[in-house]
C-alpha cells in the first residue's frame, strides 16, 4: 500500500504541517493554494455530510466523515475535539487508516508538539523531531508497509 501525503490544519484552516512520501503527481499549484483547496473541500464535505445525515447530531460532535475513495486514491480524515484536522491520502487498498491518524495525533503530535514548550500551537510546526517521528510512525505502520493481495 502507498501513503501519498499528509496535511495538518488548525481549527481555523491554517496549514500547520505538510509531508509527502510517495506522491507521484504534483498539483501544479502552490502548496498554500493546494492547502486552501483541501481545507475548503473538507469544510464542504463535513457540511454536506451533516446536512444529509438521517440522525440528529449535537453541534459539538465531530463524527460523521472519516474517509472518501476515488478510483485513484483515498482520503482519510480525523478531527480532534480541539478542531485539529489530520488528513492522510493513500492508495485505495489502505485499511484501518483511522487508527494510524489517531496514533499520529496521540503519539506524535501530542508528544512532540503539545508537550514541547518551544512549539507555538497556533503556528506552523517547525520541529525536526516532530517531522522525524511522523516519518517513522508512518513508515512503520501497516498502511505503509503492507503489500496488496
TrEMBL record:
Gene Ontology biological-process entries: endoplasmic reticulum to Golgi vesicle-mediated transport
Entry-linked InterPro entries: Longin-like_dom_sf, TRAPPC
Transmembrane segments: none
Principal cellular location given in the protein's record: endoplasmic reticulum
SMART domains recorded: Sybindin
Record bears the keyword Transport: yes
Subcellular location field: Endoplasmic reticulum; Golgi apparatus, cis-Golgi network
Assigned keywords, A-Z: Endoplasmic reticulum, ER-Golgi transport, Golgi apparatus, Transport
One cellular component term from this protein's GO annotations in UniProt: endoplasmic reticulum
Subunit composition and interactions: Part of the multisubunit transport protein particle (TRAPP) complex. The heterodimer TRAPPC6B-TRAPPC3 interacts with TRAPPC1 likely providing a core for TRAPP complex formation.
Family under the similarity heading: Belongs to the TRAPP small subunits family. BET5 subfamily.
The protein's name in its UniProt record: Trafficking protein particle complex subunit
Protein species of origin: Thrips palmi (Melon thrips)
Gene name linked to the record: LOC117650576
